[in-house]
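Lab notebook, bench 4. Still working through the backlog of constructs that have no structural model yet. Next entry is a single chain of 158 residues. Request: give me the structure tokens for it.
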Amino acid sequence: MTRCGICQQEGHNRRTCPRVDSINILVPDIVPLPQQPVRPPRNAAVGIALAIPTSVYILTNPVLSGWIKIGYSAQLPIRLKIIHASVPMPYIVRHTKEFPSRKAAQRVEKKVHEIFKEHRGSTSKKCEFFRIDWKEAVRELEQIGDTFMEEHGLLQDK
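Model written out:
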């Protein structure tokens, strides 16, 4: 019988480990994860999906020392479970910034990637890994995100 790579118990594996959720509890201790959005119905008249709140996230991983991952997702908890399967240690969510739509998050993420292109882990524009301090990335994401929201009239009154 095989042992689980997460809890070292027999009878299940990493993907079916009952402790996966308890391991992900470490993530909300650092940054609370946004609630998983319910997909709105499609607009039958136009055939397009209505805006879904989407977050740009900054992740670190102890195995990838010095590297950060900058991406976006409308369903961050699900996204984390998917990417946790590809590394021996779970990612740590360092920061998230929510935007009113996928398109807005995508544009902000692209601008942040452009700022840090010299630190990209690959020459591919699709690479989301950067060799920079995550705190610097948080500052840039906040600044670029706030500017984007202001320019597009999306800032909400506090």
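Notes after review: The chain has one domain: 14-36+51-151. The two ends are 55 Å apart (CA to CA). Flag for follow-up if needed.
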